[in-house]
Task: structure prediction
Amino acid sequence: MVSKTFIKHKYPQGTIKTEEEIELIKESCRIVAETLVLLKDYVKPDETTLNLDKVAEEYIRSRGGIPAFKGYETGGLVFPNSLCISINDEVIHGIPNNRRLKVGDLVSIDCGVLKNGYYGDSAITYGVGEISEDDKKLMAVTEKALEIGIEQVKRGNNVYDISRAIQSYVEMNGFSLTREYCGHGLGKSLHEFPAIPNYVPPLLHRDNFPNVKLENNMVIAIEPMVHKGRKEIKIASDKWTVLTRDGSKAAHFEHTVVVNDNKAIILTYR
Result:
């Protein structure tokens, strides 16, 4: 899950995590990764997204975790489910329901877990049955963009190094990126400083997305949201689900990582 609200400019207290905190975040992240792997077998024709949500919540709780998104509140809205499940032109924040999956669907699943006071967060996109070559490319480019972004997670690099790498690769492949939502730090809160945009913001927007220098033991979630068509979005009547404005399909991949000298540690590796 992504947020648009961040503290600006200074490193807030807690941005640099202790080794003990990283171990606790790692535990939550492991449950997230296991949940997303488990759900792969349930992404099939005639399955409902509500059942995927039920399977995920049962597994998360069996591992001593709490679904991080269930009851998440922002702007007076409360998210009702354990997963965000977004299908086809839904980019992020889709609410699980009785909709049945069908062959050719793209299903983006975003999962968060809270355990021992610390959060983990990750997302993946699955195809239902045989999907088109265009959709395979969309998924592959989105996942590769995440990998390329993670390669820039090095002590001394800046947030925009991540943003630039993701944007360049996605646009080189003819796709576009969501501008209004981004990655984030996390730890004791699900959304912490710094913001991690998937594009380099224009000069007038950089106050909202400061080009923070990366330091060891920062924990950040990187999550490209890629559209097959144009970058513009709209919000559904449920006030949560984000859709592409032109109806084109979208994909979403996310990992939580730790800054560690010249090579990031991926905590949600599947």
Remarks:
- The chain has one domain: 19-266.
